[in-house]
Amino acid sequence: MTTIEDHEGFKRTFKDKHLTLGLSIPFDQPKQKQINIDEQVELAQLAEELDYSSLFVRDNPLYSKYLGNVTENYDPFVFLTYLAAHTSKISLGTASIVATLRHPLHLAKAATSLDILSHERLLLGMATGDRSFEFPAFKVNEDELSERYRTTIKSLQQLWQSNAPDISNAIFELSEESVLQVLPKNKAIPMLGTGYSKQSIEWLKQNMDGWIFYAQHFQDQKQLVEQWHKDNEIFKPFINILFVDLSSNPNETVKPIKGGYRTGRKMLLEILKAYETIGTNHIILRFINKDRQLKDIINEVGTYIVPHFPTHQI
């Protein structure tokens, strides 16, 4: 086994030829007041009780008025650490950390701390970022995002292998005189690419432990999943983000929406089974209903759909 395959969160969430389901957080509901932190915790605990496999938080370093009314976003590491203290087994993911806007040393220490404190439940999605208004604030040149991403990924892999790696790159330098005191249990934390991250799929397959992608037309996704799994020497999961507007009518038929579907639970189950057959290993559900309470939706999907895609026992 590789060190990643020994990771508790990885083993519980991902398995070849099998699908599990997670939820996108922070939880929010259009046209409703912000869901406060106590309610966030209650919904996270409900998801764990119903055997959802993961909670994946977004990373939005800055806010712009052009984004409109969006849910408050806490720092992802702080938010997930708080949820880790109030849950016991559900995996805690990032979808995704804007790797180009964080120093690798801070990122390595924050991720290691969360992974240890949560008993190896962190799944670290990593992205280059796509909000142009954020880069000037961090003095990051958009023309350098691709290289900066590669450098950050390689740096994290080095930093987690040894307390005092000898590193010299365009972002920072580190010698044996300066050390990280604590390393991850298996000297690695699962890192998941997001989209292409301005890289080739060959680079992602070689350097990342899994791949998070956005919903595609079914046949397009089938080709993409096949391309991802092809010729991999070890299992690397394919993860999909899916927007769902779940009807209160369980028999409602399917209507495509941006990034997903409007449908009832019976057709949603069939859709998810179809995604499993093409090799999708995990789907992060983001419920966008305007006409139903989020708790009711989580309960319905958890009761009627999640049992078909159970979290893996370890």
From TrEMBL:
UniProt keywords, alphabetically: Oxidoreductase
Keyword presence, Oxidoreductase: yes
Coiled coil: none
Domain Luciferase-like: 22-229
InterPro entries xrefs: F420-G6PD/mer, Luciferase-like_dom, Luciferase-like_sf, Luciferase-type_oxidoreductase
Domain of life assignment: Bacteria
NCBIfam families found in the cross-reference section: lucif_BA3436
Protein name: LLM class oxidoreductase
Organism: Staphylococcus pasteuri_A
